[in-house]
Write a structure and sequence with these properties.
Jelly Rolls, mainly beta, 8-stranded antiparallel β-sheet, 2 domains
Length: 494
């Protein structure tokens, strides 16, 4: 071997040794700290909304081993991704905090259908674990009386975190009076941990994805995240499952980054085109109403959005309080103009002035929709309103409006593109097909059961229209309990 070949061989061996040492070091470091993988910014989902919640847990029942976060880089990174398809690690604590449930019932993994994720089969059920709970089967056995079951993750060191996003799917189906809560605690060095958060009694009748704000706990080095289900003395006499969760995800961002929210800037009328649209959309609500959630409301929580079994599946929307409304949307973009939106809808047991309709051309700034102020989405839009009337006989009337702004969560600046128009050719007690055509020449046409019933022109449509859509249900001032049922919702490019 000549001298140059010997020299090359020495360099090759040295490089190989260095690579081996680096691999060993990286492996060892990975075992010493929780390395999170780099990821995209969190996808906006609605906040978990409920009443203020406070509970105290014996701190000695919680995991005490700190979970340190070592950021992979300065971008958003994923720290927790829990699908409950595999056994949970030691960072989770299961606690039965009740002394009156006549047994031991804890959160644990349970086969449950439908799953929020195609191909998965397991979720976390509030009463699947413990000595008595392990014998229960979801949708077969009732959940017990006086349950107080906790599933808690932590303690997490959030001392170096500037931003975080905790999201989860949950299913709550009870017989009333039973409560699901999401909370967090940064109490440390004491015998008790105080959890504060939000709780709800409102059933979902399906999977709902929400986020929970942890910003009050940033800067603390021992933070616990808690999911809790409590039942009253009546429990459940049937086979309703109570509470389940799935797909818990925590994204974090380090303190060196400044997170700047997306800010919507309205386009100028002369140069901005219609926003680029999505693809055709169809939802027949056959199995669920995934994605269809409250995006704007004035119902103080007194509403119901659920999946029904009429006509092989429907979207059912109820507004309980007089004078209130709710806008429900999948937060999906419509195709670019021209396109049509079509619903098959029915007033359920209508009273005078009950109203449903199609919302389209709505805005969204990319942040949580809705946020606490209802300022991030559906602040501007077009709306076709269909009102039931029962004076001098029963009939429909419809109106087409352009909502330019809101004040105190009520439309403030509104243009009537088509004023109230009476319809006598439809069966007001049955399903009717309403269609809106959004056309290129600034025209909007309205159809009822394939017959044109109205048209309007908005010369500022190109600068106003945005791509989001949904449905609205409203109860008039003289009564509440307005319910509408939607058999399908189609959005199709023309």
């Amino acid at each position: 071997m000549n001298r140059s070949n010997q020299h090359f061989g020495v360099l090759f061996v040295a490089a190989f040794v260095i690579l081996v040492i680096m691999a060993i070091a990286i492996s060892s470091f990975s075992q010493m700290a929780n390395i999170v993988s780099a990821g995209e910014p969190p996808t906006p989902v609605p906040p978990f909304i409920g009443e203020e919640f406070t509970a105290v847990i014996d701190a000695n029942l919680l995991n005490q081993t700190p979970i340190n976060i070592t950021l992979a880089d300065s971008d958003w990174t994923t720290f927790i991704t829990e699908t409950f398809e595999a056994a949970l690690d030691g960072n989770w604590s299961y606690i039965d905090n009740s002394t009156t449930d006549l047994g031991e019932y804890k959160w644990d993994r349970e086969a449950f259908s439908p799953s929020p994720t195609v191909g998965d089969s397991l979720s976390a059920w509030a009463v699947a674990g413990g000595l008595e709970g392990q014998a229960l089967v979801a949708n077969t056995h009732q959940y017990p009386d006086n349950v107080d079951s906790w599933l808690i993750y932590g303690p997490i060191d959030l001392s170096g975190i500037a931003n975080s996003s905790l999201t989860f799917d949950y299913w709550l189906e009870t017989n009333g009076g039973d409560e699901f809560s999401v909370s967090a605690s940064s109490t440390s060095g004491t015998d008790v941990a105080t959890f504060t958060g939000k709780s709800t009694f409102s059933t979902t009748s399906g999977w709902t994805r929400n986020n929970y704000d942890l910003s009050d706990h940033h800067g603390n080095d021992a933070v616990y995240i808690g999911f809790n289900f409590t039942s009253d003395a009546a429990g459940d006499a049937g086979t309703l499952p109570g509470a389940l969760i799935d797909n818990v995800q925590l994204l974090v961002q380090g303190g060196d980054e400044i997170y700047i929210p997306i800010v919507r800037k309205d386009p100028t009328p002369t140069v901005s085109p219609t926003p680029s649209g999505g693809t055709d959309y169809h939802d027949g609500f056959a199995n669920d109403i995934t994605g269809w959630e409250n995006r704007r409301s004035d119902t103080q929580g007194n509403h119901e959005v659920k999946h029904g079994d009429d006509k092989k599946g429907i979207l059912s929307v109820l507004v309980e309080d007089a004078g209130d409304y709710i806008i429900v949307s999948p937060l999906v973009t419509a195709p670019s103009t021209p396109y049509s939106l079509e619903i098959n809808a029915q007033h359920k047991d209508p009273e005078n002035h009950d109203l449903y309709g199609i919302v389209f051309g709505a805005d969204w700034d990319g942040n949580t929709c809705p946020n606490a102020e209802f300022s991030s989405c559906f602040g501007t839009y077009y709306v076709l309103k269909v009102e039931y009337r029962d004076n001098d006989g029963t009939f429909f009337r419809f109106k087409l409006q352009k909502v330019n702004s809101f004040k105190s969560n009520q439309p403030d600046d509104v243009d009537n593109l088509i004023d109230w128009t009476k319809i006598t050719s439809a069966d007001e007690g049955d399903y009717n097909v309403w269609r809106v055509d959004v056309l290129e020449n600034n025209k909007i046409k309205i159809y009822l059961n394939d017959s044109e019933v109205g048209s309007a022109t908005d010369n500022n449509m190109d600068s106003f229209i945005q791509p989001y859509f949904g449905v609205i249900v409203q109860a008039k001032d003289e009564h509440g309990n307005a319910r509408a049922k939607f058999d399908y919702f189609d959005v199709i490019a023309k």
